[in-house]
Design goal:
single chain; 155 residues; mainly alpha; two-stranded parallel ribbon; 2 strands; elongated
């Protein structure tokens, strides 16, 4: 079996691997190959997000911490490609902060890396992650604000 890093993973492969249906064995075998690095595939942050709420739905006994552990385990697999450190940061933030949505955890991780603000009304949640949240939201085009700031700073 061959694969490239252009191949994409979907949530349902993980879900079927935990089910008892006609796809279970196939999906378990595929994930074992992925874990060993014999197959490589790209994992998008959107799939981690979907797993963060789908796993507790299908596996009702899974806690948020157990889901986070599972996501971190997936990210450690040799065949999983993608923005690994960013996704690990997002999962760690989501795991450590009750009430923080996975999307907000991802935005906070991304904003921290880019050193940029997040435009949101979830101020408490995002600021709690050490990220700047402009309040109120900008009332003029951002590019005009940047030019005005540069003029004031003599640039």
């Amino acid at each position: 079996m061959s694969s490239t890093i252009d191949d994409l993973l979907d949530t349902n492969v993980f879900i079927h691997a935990h089910a008892s249906d006609r796809f279970t064995e196939e999906c378990r075998h595929f994930l074992a190959l992925l874990e060993q690095g014999q197959i490589r595939a790209y994992l998008e942050p959107l799939i981690l997000h979907e797993l963060s709420y789908a796993l507790p739905h299908y596996l009702r006994q899974m806690t948020r911490t157990q889901v986070a552990d599972y996501l971190l385990m997936i990210l450690s697999w040799r065949g999983v490609q993608g923005q690994r450190s960013l996704m690990i940061d997002a999962v760690a933030r989501w795991r450590a902060t009750p009430g923080l949505s996975f999307a907000d955890a991802y935005l906070a991780a991304l904003a921290s890396r880019r050193q940029c603000p997040v435009f949101t009304k979830n101020v408490r949640e995002i600021e709690g992650q050490g990220v700047v949240v402009p309040q109120p939201l900008p009332s003029e085009p951002v590019s005009l604000r940047r030019r005005a700031r540069r003029r004031r700073n003599g640039r």
